[in-house]
Amino acid sequence: MSMNPYMRDHAFYLPIRVYYEDTDAGGIVYHSNYLNFCERARTEWLRHLGNGRDWLREEFGLIFVVRRATIDWRKPARLDDLLLVETRMTKLGKVRMHMQQTISREGVTLATVEIELVCIDHAKFAPVELPESLLAHLPPLPRDLTR
Amino acid sequence: MSMNPYMRDHAFYLPIRVYYEDTDAGGIVYHSNYLNFCERARTEWLRHLGNGRDWLREEFGLIFVVRRATIDWRKPARLDDLLLVETRMTKLGKVRMHMQQTISREGVTLATVEIELVCIDHAKFAPVELPESLLAHLPPLPRDLTR
Amino acid sequence: MSMNPYMRDHAFYLPIRVYYEDTDAGGIVYHSNYLNFCERARTEWLRHLGNGRDWLREEFGLIFVVRRATIDWRKPARLDDLLLVETRMTKLGKVRMHMQQTISREGVTLATVEIELVCIDHAKFAPVELPESLLAHLPPLPRDLTR
Amino acid sequence: MSMNPYMRDHAFYLPIRVYYEDTDAGGIVYHSNYLNFCERARTEWLRHLGNGRDWLREEFGLIFVVRRATIDWRKPARLDDLLLVETRMTKLGKVRMHMQQTISREGVTLATVEIELVCIDHAKFAPVELPESLLAHLPPLPRDLTR
After folding, report:
1. Does C79 touch chain A (CB under 8 A)?
2. Does A47 map to a domain?
């Protein structure tokens, strides 16, 4: 499997290798690190759309902050595993974005993460509406779009 | 405020100081580190009950693994903050334990975490019933006990 | 042993408990985390002197950055260990401060760290001389003071 | 620049992207994370030689542990930087391996790390001689080979 990210059916796929720093004395990936992997994947997804966080911050003065997450840990990931993080936007509101992320190893789901992000004005640290010019860069959404 | 943990009304309180390692370039505590703080608090809670994880592992061959969590990040924690993590058992099943944890700063709630833990046989890495002799060491539960 | 920090013979002592997040799949504390423990100890040392980093930053616009370190890992620390970090200033230059830090468990040295810090003007991110009014707050130095 | 690792002149090069989790409230990469980047690079170097840590552990019962490191932090790395870690073996003893690692961004050196690793019998956690059959897989060394 290549280590390079790719897009397929409007979902974004990022391979991530597990290193010692990711594991704990239980011999498995430390539970909160799945959120780190997901954040890496969302970052690369934005970059893959052609415009990274720099662009968001410099062009619009915006950042996305994580407001809420639900994580299901189903099976443990281990040292040296090559994981695949699938990232998919599921809902887009005026100031909020919902994403579903899945971490798998060779086709087996290890964890699923539901994330709610809020668009924040970086200077005021207050929620702000997603600008139309940003929306144009986002991938198409599934049917349940509620905006 | 003291840095020492304490128990009050069947909830356990652990003060945690925020260091550089906990923060990110957004100037706030990195979102997944709230889960780390919660895990520290559950560990100290077990130790405070008079028996740490060592005892669980050596006496019963058991460990608790995090199966599911929902996290609400309401306000950011910052460098040098002295946080207080409140830990409370909310439900106790045959193999599962539910906990509610709240992270606050000077009485203001910054984040809430709902955690579901599963009791695992360490050798087989399979779920196992909580032994009666362990239950005797746990604090009383609220009314909604469902065991 | 108490979990509270203390000063003795011009050295500062901070107890640190090892949690799952600090360990790796080798069953021991991940090697770079010793640097995190040392940074926590230097932070608490500054706070113990009566003035934390806030004061440095707000009063003088200064921060200390780590410029160089040599670390000897002698014996592994493990999950649930209660470590003691000893912090001692060994040399004080015009813009630099040298510190020696030792991490031990029940009197046995696990790691030693030699650290060189540089005083930086926070706005310009450039080295700057330590102000006299700050020096007044530092503990006495050993003989080999070279300022 | 590609994200894929490569070998050139007996040195190994691993590109590493900086994410939020790597940074701190100072707006730069947290100092100890450079050691994490170096450990990732040594891991990928072993994998690139055709045999990962699994092979070392399963075939020989060996692991390498970090015994000593000297780190020079020259310039800060920042969020979203694409770093390049250069890894080079500089000396090979009977039980020890010395490596030099450099972290750079667009040709500018940000940090250098000198690492001493010790070959350990995994079961006994005691130093052991590097087996001849392992040495055959290592890249040629510079002149100052001292074995």
Report:
1. yes
2. yes
